[in-house]
Amino acid sequence: MAEQNQTNQTNQTVIGAGARFKGELTLSGGALIQGTVEGSITAEGPGELKFAPQSQTRASVRAATVLIEGQYDGDVLATERLQLTSSARVTGEVVAAAMVVAEGATFAGKVAVGPDAVAASSKSAGNAINNATNSAMNTESHTRAAQTAAPATLESKPASRTSVRLPDWAAANGGAISGEASANRSDWVAQTTGRTSQKSASNEV
Amino acid sequence: MTKQVPMRDVRCYHCQQELTVPAAARNTRCPTCYRPLNLDDIEVRGASASAMIMTVGRLTIEAKAKPLTKRLHAGELLEVRGHVDANATCDGHVHLARSARASGQLKARSLTAEKGATFNGLVEIGPRTATSD
C-alpha cells in the first residue's frame, strides 16, 4: 500500500490495472501505465513513463525516459533513455538516445540509438503519432474494410503485361512479316538508322 | 593428490552444443560437430579484414578499431567502442560504449547502449535468440 502511494506520488498520471485506454494521451511529466493502452502517448517534460509488468500496450510513445516492464507492441521514441526490464516483451521500432535491455527481456524490432537518430525522428514524430492514433481509433473499421476490399482488389488486379510497340511495317500485317512487309521493313530500318543495309545497297547497284 | 584443473562451460557457436573445457584452454574442437572453436578473449584494435571474428569468450572492438568483418560472435560479452557494421550475435551481454558507432543486425541476450553511442539496425533480444547462424 505504501509502495503504491509512493508510485502515485512520483508519477503524476496513473492508468490503473483494470483500466483500458484507447486514443491519444498527452501528459506533462511522468506516468505509470498498469492497464491496457491503445493509441499514442506523448509525455512532455523530464518525467519517466513507466509501463508496469501487467500492462498491455499497443501504442506509439514519445517521452524523455521510458521504462517498460510489461507487454508492448509499437514504436518508442525516448529522447533520453529507454529501459526494458527482464519481464518486458517488446516488439516495434525504437529510437532512443540511450538504451538498456535487461537479461530475460525479449525484444524484436528495428533500433536507432544515438542523438542523431533522436533528432531525426523528433521531426517526424508528430506525424507518426497522429497516424498511430488514427489507426488505433479506426482499427475495427479498417479491418472490416480490408476484409471486404481484399477479394475485390485481387480480382480486379490486371495481369502484368509488357506492352510492345510494333513499327508500322509490322503492325500493318498484324505482326507477321510478309514480302511487302519485308520491303517496308527495309525502309523503316533506313529511316531509323539513317543508312541503308548492305544488301539493299547491292540490289540498287 | 591430483591438482584440480579449473573448468568453464562454453557453447559451440557452430552447433550450439554446450561443452566443458579447461579455463586455460585457448582453442578446442567441438566434440559434436568437430569444428574448431576459439576460446580466447579477442580485442580488435585496428582494421581487421577477416571474414568473421568468433569466440566463445569476450570480444571487444576498441575505440579506434574499424573492422571490415561482416560476422561477429561472442559467447560471453560483446563490447563495442569503435566502428562496426556487421551481423553480430552474442550469447551474453552486448555493451555499446559512448564512442560506439554500430550498424547491422544484432542478436543478444541483453543490451546496453550508453548515451552518445549510435546504432542503426535490427535487434533481437531474448534468451533463445542469441544463437549463431
Task: Please write out the topology.
The complex is a heterodimer of chains A (205) and B (133).
Chain A: H1 2-10, E1 13-15, E2 20-28, E3 31-33, E4 36-44, E5 48-51, E6 56-68, E7 71-73, E8 76-84, E9 89-96, E10 99-101, E11 106-113, H2 115-137, H3 139-156, H4 168-171, H5 179-193, H6 198-204
Parallel strand pairs in A: 1-3, 2-4, 3-5, 4-6, 5-6, 6-7, 6-8, 7-9, 8-9, 8-10, 9-11
Chain B: E1 7-11, E2 18-22, E3 27-29, E4 36-38, E5 42-44, E6 52-55, E7 58-61, E8 71-74, E9 77-80, E10 83-90, E11 93-96, E12 101-108, E13 110-113, E14 118-125
Parallel strand pairs in B: 5-7, 6-8, 7-9, 8-10, 9-11, 10-12, 11-13, 12-14
Antiparallel strand pairs in B: 1-2, 3-4
Describe this structure in words.
The complex is a heterodimer of chains A (205) and B (133). Chain A has 205 residues and is of the alpha/beta class. Chain A has helices at 2-10, 115-137, 139-156, 168-171, 179-193, 198-204; strands at 13-15, 20-28, 31-33, 36-44, 48-51, 56-68, 71-73, 76-84, 89-96, 99-101, 106-113. In chain A, 29% of the residues are buried. The model of chain A is unreliable at 132-167, 169-183 and 192-205 (pLDDT under 50). Chain B has strands spanning 7-11, 18-22, 27-29, 36-38, 42-44, 52-55, 58-61, 71-74, 77-80, 83-90, 93-96, 101-108, 110-113, 118-125. In chain B, a hairpin with a 6-residue loop joins strand 1 and strand 2 (18-22). Chains A and B meet through strand 8, strand 10, strand 11 and helix 2 of A and strand 13 and strand 14 of B. Strand 10 of chain A pairs antiparallel with strand 13 (110-113) of chain B, so a sheet runs across the interface.
